[in-house]
């Protein structure tokens, strides 16, 4: 069985998108692993399937698989790739689309230009909601990773997330973009497996440059878009950032907006279609 797909970059990370609305698509873990191979398959960070909606108020359901073939909750960034695909292939009318996913509801606006605005519900900082082991909710916690003390914010933003303020390490986030593992990435990996997150978490490390700019220096288990959002949300909640800061990782520039409280989050991510193809499943 053959299936049409598109390779699309979201903040420099590659996603393979398949339409399961107008074509029959079934993938097993073995199939996904074969397709993810960068020498013999398509090669991608994640495989995204656009499915018919489960909720009549939304346009599509989004299903994501990691390179091991496991279904993933890491759907935030992939929604931008799927929005571009849906607009280009005329799967929906207009450029404002609603997705359901394991991550939660995501609304995507754009898809015809070089950026997509991703809208989502605000984070929940309550320890029980994350979940995170703490006696009370705090804006900052001190956790250890790789023998270092790290200042962290714990939140549930679709999935459990740890956003850590940068310590004095060598790393500019290059490892997060696939160019090797930096020391900051290793610290993030340690935080992602920290015992105070009983379900595990995604993690990012950030540096406050000014009140309207923050730099990602490392991440683990998350796409760049959702990591940028988590870093900005942590800084805004701590009063260190203005409500609409820019977030930079290498040459990738994103913007995150949040007025605080119950207001919606908007993360503007750069999106670049690469090529269309057909593959045997």
Give descriptors for this structure.
281 residues; globular; alpha+beta; 16% helix
Give an overview in words.
The chain has 281 residues and is of the alpha+beta class. The protein is 16% helix and 40% strand. It has 4 helices and 16 strands. Strands 1-2-3-4-6-7-8-16 form an 8-stranded mixed beta barrel. Strand 13, helix 4 (224-237) and strand 14 form a beta-alpha-beta unit. It is globular and about 50 Å long. It starts with a strand and ends with a strand.
Write the topology of this structure.
Blueprint: E1 2-10, E2 13-19, H1 29-36, E3 46-51, E4 60-65, E5 71-72, H2 76-88, E6 96-100, E7 106-110, E8 115-120, E9 141-145, E10 148-157, E11 159-165, H3 183-192, E12 202-210, E13 213-220, H4 224-237, E14 246-249, E15 252-257, E16 265-280
- Low-pLDDT runs of 5+ residues are 170-178
> How large a portion of the residues is in β-strands, by DSSP E?
35-45%
Name the helicity range.
10-25%
Note the overall shape. globular
- If strands are numbered along the chain, what order do they take across the biggest sheet? 1-2-3-4-6-7-8-16
SSE order: EEHEEEHEEEEEEHEEHEEE
How many strands, which pairing sense, and closed or not: the largest β-sheet?
8 strands, mixed, barrel
Main structural class: alpha+beta
For the CA atoms, what is the radius of gyration?
18 Å
How much is the average pLDDT? 93
Number of helices: 4
End-to-end distance, in Å?
6 Å
Number of strands: 16
């Amino acid at each position: 069985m053959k299936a049409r797909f598109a390779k699309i970059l979201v903040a420099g990370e590659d996603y393979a998108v398949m339409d399961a609305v107008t074509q029959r698509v079934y993938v097993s873990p073995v199939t996904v692993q074969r397709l993810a191979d960068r020498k013999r398959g398509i090669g991608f960070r994640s495989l995204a399937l656009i499915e018919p909606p489960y909720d009549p108020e939304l346009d599509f359901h989004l299903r994501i698989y990691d390179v091991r073939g496991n279904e993933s909750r890491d759907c935030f960034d992939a929604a931008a790739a799927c929005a571009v695909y849906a607009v280009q292939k005329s799967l929906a009318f207009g450029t404002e689309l609603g997705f359901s996913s394991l991550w939660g509801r995501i609304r995507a606006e754009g898809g015809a230009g070089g950026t997509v605005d991703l809208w989502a519900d605000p984070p929940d900082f309550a320890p029980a909601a994350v979940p995170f082991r703490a006696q009370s909710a705090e804006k900052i916690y001190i956790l250890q990773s790789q023998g270092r003390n790290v200042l962290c914010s714990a939140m549930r933003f679709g999935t459990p997330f740890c956003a850590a303020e940068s310590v004095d390490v060598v790393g500019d986030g290059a490892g997060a973009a696939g160019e090797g593992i930096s020391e900051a990435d290793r610290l993030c990996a340690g935080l992602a497996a920290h015992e105070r997150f009983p379900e595990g978490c995604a993690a990012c490390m950030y540096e406050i440059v000014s009140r309207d700019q923050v730099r990602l220096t490392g991440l683990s288990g998350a796409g760049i878009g959702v990591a940028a959002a988590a870093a900005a949300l942590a800084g805004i909640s701590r009063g260190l950032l203005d409500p609409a800061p820019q977030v930079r990782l290498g040459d990738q520039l994103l913007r995150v907006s949040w007025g605080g409280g119950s207001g919606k989050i908007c993360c503007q991510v750069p999106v670049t279609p690469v090529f269309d193809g057909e593959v045997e499943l």
